[in-house]
Design brief:
2 domains, six-stranded antiparallel β-sheet, nine-stranded mixed β-sheet, 22% strand, 15 strands, Arc Repressor Mutant, subunit A, alpha+beta, Penicillin V Acylase, Chain A
Length: 375
């Protein structure tokens, strides 16, 4: 299936190796494009050859296997199905850690804007969450919607770069994950790349298990993980290689962008400045300002329109909530909103706008979040 003739919907089932093979075969073209793009990015940002990148990617295998037993079988299956080397798929699942700063990311986190609205704050009584996914323009043609049927674990629907095992989305247990980078890095170590942590969260059957996966992970970078549950529980966790911070909705609304809000890690407290993405400071308030009108939207269609308005905000454009590409910037470092999503956790509808939300219609995915049947 194709969403708006732009983004493939890929459904996979079976054991880890079988799921990976199905995924790799269905996304063969997109995986090839992704590898070609990150080969170029790595050459500009790290001066490393693609062979060197693949060699470094193998260093993650012990920590990945310890944190997430069995997931490397899925990675091997993706490689087999797509006709690529296992190490290349490993590299795609550590693209930030490898392509910025050599061994881990110094910058280059996903500069996204995430939100959640509880039933108390929404006029239709539904629970909503979603985000603008801001990343490099060159990956637009590599995005796929992946639906993973994996009993007894929940079925997952998520948006990923082709070849990745996890990013953001929702599962049939009513749990959703949105994520946005926090820029400043410290404590360089051979930690678990973020796609594996996010996949473990989305594999979780409840909020408790999801939080445990976040807090037990040893990671490299700093990322905010926004968790929302269909029952209206919302928690945003600012994760770092050291301690974590967390925050809850105010008047039923929680918005997070790309700077520390709950706390500033002690390792960087004396020198911290949100220079990674200073527009984060006003993107946050622009979204909040619009979403405060949620209570007045009595119908679900009105709620989605309001959320789409917030995610299409152009204050400060091109450095706006709806982030437009800067055409004078080289492709390997040109950022934009590559996709935008709205998830209704009450009725299970998942809406996606490919590319810039100001130019694309939010299309409802043909699969409901709570449809746990096999493809």
């Amino acid at each position: 299936m194709i969403l708006g003739e732009k983004i493939p919907l890929i459904e996979i089932t079976g054991d880890e190796r079988t799921r990976g093979q199905q995924y790799g075969e269905a996304a063969r073209e997109q995986i090839g494009k992704s590898i070609a793009f990150y080969r170029e990015v790595a050459a500009h940002t790290t001066k490393l050859s693609w062979d060197e990148i693949q060699t470094r990617a193998r260093l993650w295998m012990p920590v990945i296997d310890e944190y997430f037993p069995g997931i490397l079988d899925e990675v091997r299956g993706i490689a087999e199905g797509s006709g690529r080397a296992f190490e290349e798929i490993l590299a795609l699942n550590g693209r930030t850690e490898l392509t910025y700063g050599g061994s881990i990311a110094d910058e280059g986190n996903d500069s996204c804007s995430s939100f959640a609205i509880t039933s108390e704050a929404s006029g239709d009584g539904h629970v909503y969450c979603g985000q603008n996914w801001d990343w490099l323009s060159g990956i637009k043609e590599t995005i796929v919607i992946l639906r993973v049927h994996q009993p007894p674990k929940p079925t997952i629907i998520m948006q990923v770069e082709a070849g990745q095992v996890g990013r953001h989305g929702a599962n049939s247990a009513g749990l959703a994950l949105c994520a946005n980078g926090l820029g400043r890095q410290f404590g360089k170590s051979n930690g678990v790349p973020s796609p594996y942590i996010r996949r473990r969260v989305l594999d979780s059957a409840n909020m408790n298990d999801a939080l445990e996966e976040i807090f037990k992970a040893k990671q490299n970078g700093c990322t905010n993980l926004l968790l929302a549950h269909k029952d209206g529980v919302v928690i945003s966790v600012e994760t770092t290689p050291g301690r974590h911070g967390w925050m809850y909705p105010t008047d039923g609304i929680l918005v997070h962008t790309n700077h520390f809000i709950a706390f500033v890690p002690p390792q960087i407290a004396e020198t911290y400045r949100p220079t990674y993405s200073v527009d984060s400071l006003y993107r946050l308030t622009q979204i909040q300002r619009v979403l405060k009108r949620s209570k007045a939207q009595k119908r679900s269609k009105q709620m989605r329109h309001l959320i789409a308005t917030a995610l299409s905000d152009h204050f400060g454009v091109p450095d706006s909530v709806c982030a437009h590409p800067k055409e004078n910037v080289p492709l390997h470092s040109r950022y934009q909103t590559v996709a935008s999503c709205i998830m209704d956790l009450t009725n299970g509808d998942y809406y996606l706008a490919p590319g810039l939300p100001c130019e694309s219609e939010y299309v409802k995915l043909p699969r409901n979040i709570y449809d746990s049947a096999s493809a």
